[in-house]
Give the backbone structure.
Amino acid sequence: MRKIIHTIFSLAVILLLFSCKAEAQKSKSYVIGFYNLENLFDTYHDSGKNDYEFLPDGANQWTQAKYEKKLRNMASVIRAMADDNKAFHSILGVSEIENRHVLEDLVIQPEIAKANFQIVHYDGPDRRGVDVALLYRPDCFELLESKSIPYDFNSQRIIFTLDSIGKDNFRTRDILMARGLLGGEMFAFFVTHLPSRIGGKGNDLRSRGGEIIYEYSLKLMEEYPGIKIVVMGDMNDNPTDESMTVHLRGKENVKDVEPLDFFSPFLSMFKAGYGSLAYQGGWNIYDLILVNHNLVNAPEGTLRIIPIVKKKYYGRIFSKPFMTQQDGQYKGTPFRTFSNGAFIGGYSDHYPTFIVVTNK
């Protein structure tokens, strides 16, 4: 009799453990974010690129010690986000990185090495050599394909200010697309760094960037019905600008998101006064993340975006005191790497942003 009772008890424990394990496997949450790393360059010259200011004898006197300090700083921010979220990002898009080598150096930093981040990166045509890339955890995301999508001027709707010679000479970052399975569901991630505003570059250039992403998204939604799409990057535009609202069809409220629209979580935050970078005394949110209809209105039990700030905002701008200038002219703004041409040992002139998706 005692043997029977022991056997029944053992079976009950096994069933309970199996049930708990199955429930844990069924309940999933993932952090998806973007971070402009502000000129993460190594100390070597890349052939054909204008990276001379980031050499030991260049204008920034970019030494190995400064490079290693920069790597530690970037890793400490990524780790701080993991500590806050109780998990490392599953997906982290990055911009202003020189090459794959700097990412390989970054992901092995002690603060973040256990995340085992894998890298998706392509060398792009930007003259300074800065690219975008995607870091992902292979225990969360299974990469199926990736592409580097070139910038072009093949638009039927946008009137460009550049003449034919200007277009031929124009160079900017390619757009990165990575498609795969996040928690077993089909996802596509776009990472972009749209053309700068420096030198009076018009919003037509950034509008074309948004249009390229949108056109490619439509192709993916047609080829893979139900695919969930996340667009992230340094847009050099606010979420209220034409590139985001018209050409990417970013909507402020989830209830207004139609099947071919995107939801723009940081639009309402921008209107409420939040910012991810400061310029001439004003705050902007250029570090944007948008998601398609399938991730907003997902079937029950599948991954969907959820509010994470004050139970109403679907995005978060991550800032901590150590990432923020504590005194001087730029007090209260992101603690950057350089100020007025001098190395000050900060982190980035942008705060990172992220969203959370869950099936809970």
